[in-house]
Amino acid sequence: MEEFIQGFWNFAQNYWWLIFPLMGMAGGAAKAWERSSKRRHERRLETLRMKAQLKTAEIEARALTQQAKRRGPSVVDTTASVAPSDLVARLFAEHDEITARWLDYELDVAKLIAFPAMSDGRQPLTAAFLRAKKTADALRPASADAKVTEQQVTEYLQAVGDYAVAFEIAEKDARRLRDSTFTEPERKRLDRAQQLLKVAVDESATQAERNVAYKRVREELDGLILLSDDAVTVLEKQVAKELPAHATAPPAPEPATEAAPAPAPGPAASGSTTPPPSTPEPERIRLPRRDEQA
User: Fold this and answer.
1) What is the rounded distance in angstroms from the CA atom of residue 219 to the CA atom of residue 189?
2) For 147-151, which contacts have Cβ atoms below 8 Å and span 24 or more sequence positions?
3) Any idea which of 78-82, 101-105, 195-199 has the lowest mean pLDDT?
4) Would you give the DSSP letter of residue 262?
5) Where are the alpha helices (DSSP H) in the chain?
6) How many C-beta atoms surround the C-beta of residue 144 within 10 A?
7) What's the pLDDT score for residue 81?
8) pLDDT higher at 86 or 85
């Protein structure tokens, strides 16, 4: 035992410089194991949650199908190869709701800056959500009244369930990550872009100030976040919105000119207190002459 301890100290004295790289390797291995363990745990929770969501949707679908069969007249095909319109309509509503929630991130530049992972297809969970969206869109029937088979309804039901779960997972992960995947200089650029964006859409700022802020926002985000064409269009409309205080000249002078026309020529035109010309004129016509009185 003493020889082992002595040998260890001899080794440490001669190769003490190996301690630092060994410590770094050990620390890196520990972090990698921790990340791998956390990832496995998250994947397990995602799988369980997805199964639970799909199970609930399937139970609901079976209940709606049985209800439609009991009604009788609403089932057009006696072989039950046509899905009830109310079931497909409800799936449409859920499908559209998820898409609207996604577009709320995709078209809002402020949200994209705050949660950039939602538009980053390199993120695994975001990529999984985009794949689920593509599948659900492809399996969506033409309309709620379209004639589809039971198999098609089942596939669309599962696709919508996957789409909903994938979005919630991707959204949760994006809110957890925020800007942690960027370097410190990149995070500062995102912060500047967020502040400039407030000026670009501020209705109390002048149009010139908003235009300059918008240009600088695009410069700060260049190479960090890819804005879609639709997001750029929405942002440009917000920047170009007219200021509330900006209004055309009031039309008061023109009515004032029309309301006070030049006085008509005549004896009463120069007098300030003389009645209008139309009033004394009939009186002069009715006055009798001196020879008529006699």
Assistant:
1) 9
2) 147/76, 147/77, 147/82, 148/82, 148/83, 148/88, 149/81, 149/83, 150/80, 150/81, 150/83
3) 78-82
4) P
5) 2-14, 19-71, 85-106, 109-114, 124-139, 150-177, 184-200, 207-221, 229-239, 253-259, 280-286, 290-293
6) 16
7) 40
8) 86
